[in-house]
Amino acid sequence: MPDQWITSVGIDIGTSTTKMIVSRLKLTRTSSALSLPRYDIVERELLYASPIHGTPLLGEDEIDAERIGELLSQDYEKAGISPRDLKTGAVIITGETANKKNASRIVHLLAERSGDFVVATAGADLEGLLAGKGAGADRRSMHTRGAVANLDVGGGTANVAFFARGKPAGTVTFHVGGRLIQVDPAGTIEAVSPSLRPWLEASGFAISPGQTVGFPLLREICAAMCRDMLDYLARCALPAGGKETIRKLMLGDPLPSVPVLEEWTVSGGIGGLMAAKAPDSLAETAVHGDIGPLLAHALRQCCERYPIRLAQPDQTVRATVIGAGMQSTEISGATVHLDASLLPIRNLPVLKLDISPHMLAREALLKEAAAGVMRTAASLFEQDASPPFALALSGMKHCSYESLQWLSDALAERFREAFPASRAMVVVCENDLAKALGQSLDRRCGGRPGIVCIDQIRVEYGDYIDLGEPISGVMIPVVVKTLAFHNRTVGGTHA
Amino acid sequence: MKLTTALLGKTFQFKSLKEVMAKANEEKSGDQLAGIAAEDAKERMAAKLVLADLKLADIRDNPLLPPETDEVSRVIEETVNEKIYGEIRRWTVAELREYLLQQTTGNDEICRISRGLTSEMVAAVAKLMSNLDLVQAASKMEVTSHCNITIGQRGVLAGRAQPNHPTDSIQGMKASLFEALSYGIGDAVLGINPVIDSAESVKQLLNATKEVMDQWRIPTQNCVLAHIKTQMKAIRQGAPADMVFQSLAGTADGNKGFGIDIALLDEADELIRREGTGTGPNLWYFETGQGSELSAEAHHGIDQVTLESRCYGLARKYKPFIVNTVVGFIGPEYLYDSKQVIRAGLEDHFMGKLQQLPMGVDVCYTNHMKADQNDMDNLAVLLAAAGVNYIIGVPMADDCMLNYQSTSYHDIATLRETMRLRPAPDFERWLEEMGIMANGRLTPAAGDPTLFM
Amino acid sequence: MERTISLERLVDGVLTELEKRIAAAASPGGDEAGGMPLAPVDLFGPAASRVPDPKWEEGVNELIAATPARIGVWRAGTRPLTREMLKFRCDHAAAVDSIYGQVSPAILEQYGLFTVETRYENTENYLKRPDMGRIVTDEGVEKIRSACRMNAQVQIVVSDGLSASAVDANLRDVYPALLDSLKAYGLSAGTPFFVRGGRVAVMDHIGDILQPEVFVLLIGERPGLVSSKSMSAYMCYRPRKGTVESDRTVISNIHQGGTPPLEAGAHIGTVVKKMLEQRTSGVNLDL
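Output (C-alpha cells, whole complex):
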C-alpha cells in the first residue's frame, strides 16, 4: 500500500472565540517489508486555518448553535473541503463553554456537519494536552532535562499540560482567564464568572457586577491570580495544606505530584496578548470589555519571578485547535480484526484489564479475570448498547497460543452472558495481538456479536475512545479522549 | 601466455587465465561452491607459479570479462594510464610483488604505478602475497579523502559510528550514537543502515544525525545506507545528506542484482554534488565484499578475489570518501572460517588501497561462521598495522539490527591506544573540546552517553 | 466523573483479589517452575547502566530503554567490563549452539509432522553447500509422495534451517495460529511435514513434487545475539524449480521479542488468501 493522506479537522469553540483548521496527515508504512505491516502518521500539513471568529452567543449562557454551523459551512467552503472528505479530527468545546446550556446539542450538530468521523469532545484535561501539543511543548521537552509546561490561557480557564522527555506528564486546570471578569472602560464591573467567585472571596477581593473599581485593584487581582497559579506549577506551594486560595483557583483535583519544570510556554488568547504593550489604564484594559490584556501582562511579569525559562510557543491563540486537528489522531496496528459494518463508533467508554505474565500462564486465573471484568462491565454499562464499552487489554507481550484460547473462551462466553443483546464487542489491545485475538473471538462468536479488535493503542480506565472507518481495509484512525490524569497510577500499571 | 608448469613431478596445464586466477587463490569456500577452486594444495601452488610468471600485458590482453559486454570492465579499461602501463607491461606479476615490497618503493612510487594497473593485475599480485606482505605493502600507501573533514592520514584510525536500530527508532539510534561519540567514535561517518528502505525513513535519519552534528558542532559527515534510489528521493525532498552510499559488485550483472548501473551512479554523483550537504570533493561511500557476485549468480566463473578487485576499479571512478569491505557478513558458504575471513580482509584492504581507495574494513562475522570475537580482535590489529583508514564501531560489537558482530567502540579506542593511532585531527580537536580525549587518550569522562543529552 | 471513579475502584478490587491469588499460586513448592535453575538469559538480568558517574543519571536509563543495543556498558580502560564481555560471549554461545542443535522430537510428534531430510549430510556441509539444502533426498521424496496430499490449496512445511531452537521456541504459537487463520478464511491445508537441513529454496523442490497452490515454509533463521530463536515464514505462490527470491513473500524475526508469533501466524492466513486471489506472490503481491 502506498502512502496515504487522510484529512482531519479541528474545531475549537471557546468562551470568547471559535476557530477551525483543516489539515492532512500522511500515513506511511513504518515497519520493514519483512515485518508485519505497521503504519504511522509521519507528517502533518496544515491546509486551512479559519479566521478567529467571536463565539456567537444567545444570551449569557447559551451558544448560538445555528450560527456556529453557518460559520463552519463558510470555512469548509473557503478551505475547499467537503465534510465527506474528513476521516478524523476533534471538536473541542473549551473552558466554560462546555458548561453552557446547549453544549451537547452543539456537539451533536457539529458531528453531523463535520463528516462521518469527527470526534466530539469536551474536557479540560484533553484540551490542555492538545493545546500543549499544538504549542509544541511536547517537542520542546525532548530537548530539556526538566519538564516543560504549556499554559493555555483563554477566556475562561487556563489548561496546563506537563510534558517530560516528549511524553505527557500530567494536566491541571485553573480558573484563570481573560473573560472571567468583564469590565467597561469606566471601571464598571459587568460580570464576574461564578467559577472565580470562591477564589475572589478566599483572597479577600470583594467585587460584584455593577460595582465600579479602579485600575490598581484589577491589576492586583490579576497579579494574585497569576501568582497562585504559578506558585502551584513551580512547586512553591503545596496543594494540600498549602494556600487555601490555590485550591479555590483549581478546577478538579490537584496532581499527585507536580513535575519539576525547566521551561514553560503560554498559549491561548492570553498567550497571544503577552507580547503587547502593558495596559496603563482602565480604558486600555477594557478594549474587549474584559481583563484580558491586564491578565496577559500580569502573567508575563509574574513568570519572571521563577527560575523557569519562559519560551515562545509554536502557536498561541490557535494552539488548541491545531492540537485538536493535527495531534489528536492515532492509527491502530495494521494487523487487526474489523467488522467494518460496525464502524465508526463514537465515544465509547473504556474498561481496562491489565494481565500479568502470571495470569497468562494460568487458565483459572485468566478466566476469572475475564469473568471479573465482564461482571464489572455489566454493572456499569447499558445492556443492549452495541457496543456497550471497549475492553482494553494490556500486559500481553508474551502470549502463547494456549493462553489465547483460554482468554478467548472466557471473553466470548462472559461477554455474551453479560450483554446478550449486544451486537458488537470492541477490544483494544496494547500489544500487537489483535488479529490473532480477533480471529479467535470471531470463531467463537460467529458474528453474534461482531468483533472489532484493534491493537497498538494505549488507553486507560476512564478514557473514552472513538474508532473511525477503516483505511485501506486494514487499520483505523483512533482518538483517545483522556479525561483525567489524576490518580492514574492507582491500579493502572501492574504487570 | 604460458599456462603450464611442472611441480613435484607433475605437469599442470591450465586452460585459461580465468582458471589460473581462481586456482591461485588461497582456499575460500566461495570458490569451492562455484566449482572453480584448486583441487588440492599442489594445484593451488601450480597456479600460483604460473601466475607469478605471467606478464601484466598477458592479463590485460586476455580480459576475463570483455569490456564490450561488461560496463565494469569498460570503466576499469578507461582509467588505465597508457604511458605508465607501457613502462610496466612487461613486468611479471612476481616482479610487481617485489617492486611493491622494495624498501625504495614508497607511497609516491606506488601511487604512480597504480595508474597503470587494472583491477585484475591488482588481484593477481594479491594472490602471490602472504598475509604479512599484504600488511606491509598496504601500510606504505596513504590515501586521504575529504568530505567535511579529512581522514586517512598516516597515524590516523577513524571509526564509523553505526548506531543501527531494529525499527529505525530515532531515539534508539541517537542512544547508540551518543555512546559512540562518548568513546571518540564517528570521525569516518555517522552511518546508519535503515530497516525501512523508504525516503521517509532516510529523511528522518539524515535529519536526526544532522541535528546532532549541528547541536554539538561535530566535525564529521552523515550518511544513511539505503538503496541509492531511496537516498536520491530523500535528497530531492530536501534531506541533508553529506554523502551517498551504494553497495557495488564487480560485474555489470552483479550490479543489476543490486538494482544499479553506471548511468544511475552517474546520476547520483551529479545529484550529491549539486544537492548534497557535504563539502567534498569526496562524496561517496561504497561497500563491497567477496562473494556477492556468486550469491547473485553473476560471477561469470571468475573467482571472488578478482571480482572484489573489480569493485574497487569501479569505485575509483567516483572518488569516494570511504569504501569498506564488509568482509565476513556474507556467510560461511563464501568465507568459511576465521582464517578465510582474515585473509579476505587483508586482501581487500590491500587491493583497494592499491587502487587508491580510502579503504576501511567491516571486520565482522555471522553466527553460522566458524569465527568468534577473538578472531575479529586479530584481524583488527592486523588491519591497524596495515594502516586501514577506518573500521566499524557498533555497541559492544553486536549489531542489534543487522544481526551480526563487528568491532566495538571499545575496540577502536583500544586499537588507537595500543597501536599509537589517533582519531582524524579535526575530530580529535573536537573530542578535546568536549573533554572526551586528552593527549590522544580517553579521559575519565569518556564512555558516558549522557554527555550529549 | 463519578462513574469513572467507581469503575476504577471496582476494577482495582478485582485486581487486588487476583494479585492475592497469584501470590498464593506462586508460593514456593507449589509451582511447576520449582527447582528449575534460572535460564541463562535471566542470569544477567535486564540491561542496566554501568556508567559510574554519568552526567545525567535518568538520562542513561532513558537511552538504555530506547534500544536493544548494548550501551551504557562502561569500560575497564578502553576494554569492556568483564560481565558485559561474558554476557556477549554467552549470547554468542547460544547462537552457535542453536545452529548445531536438533529440533525436539516431541514437538514434531505433537503436530504429527513426519521428517524428511535434504542432501545436506552434516552441519558443516550444510553451511558450505546451501545448494544441498535445497534438494530433498530420494528417500524423502518417496516419503512425501506416499504420505502427502497432492495439489493442496496451502502446503505447510517446517524446517530447522539455521536454528533448531527457533522451531522449538515458536512453532507451538505460530503453527496453530496459522491453522486457525486458514480456517477463518475457509482455506484448506495439505499434509504438513518437517524437513531436516532445509534451505528456503527447498520449497521449490517440494513444490515440484506436490504442486500446491501456495506454499508456507516456517524455517529457523540465522541466529543473532539478540535472539537465537528467530523464525521466518516464507510464502510463495506455486513455487517450482527456478523460482526467484523476489517471488517469495517473507515475514521474518518471529520470536517473543520480535514479530509476535501469534500475530504472525494469524497474518499468514491473510497473506495466503491474497496470494490465492491475486495468483502471485513476492514483489508482485499487493498486500
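DSSP finds 15 helices and 22 strands in chain A.
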